[in-house]
Amino acid sequence: MKLLKCRFLLIALACLLWISRCMADKLTVTVSTVMATYDKQTGKPVVYVIFPQASYEPLLKWSQNNVGKTVELLINGQVVHRTMLKEPLYDRKLVFSEPDWTDLAEANALRRQFVKSPHGQVELRSSSQSN
């Protein structure tokens, strides 16, 4: 009986670890500011997404675990952008850009998607796929 309890406990712990690993790949955060502008260094259109201070710890931990992975930005459950996460988000800011963006119209289209997010919440989801 004792062996059965230990086996059950090990299975339960393994399930919890697996579930926590799956959940670590997703993060729902509130956005405080979204700006479409031109990057000062490259001159290309970009969208800056800035998260509030309250999101700093979970955002940093999530980003540290997902460097090198493709990150999907979901608003209302729909993927609106994919990008490669190149480094942890130490400054609570995510920058989106695309090589084919030539003017602010494309960047503003992404910025407008954020207006549709309920309560300013977006989901970040990672995968091991390369961008």
TrEMBL record:
Which residues, if any, are the signal sequence? 1-24
| This protein's UniProt keywords | Signal
The answer to whether UniProt assigns keyword Signal to this entry is yes
Task: Output this protein's name.
Answer: Uncharacterized protein
Q: Which organism is it from?
A: Bradyrhizobium macuxiense
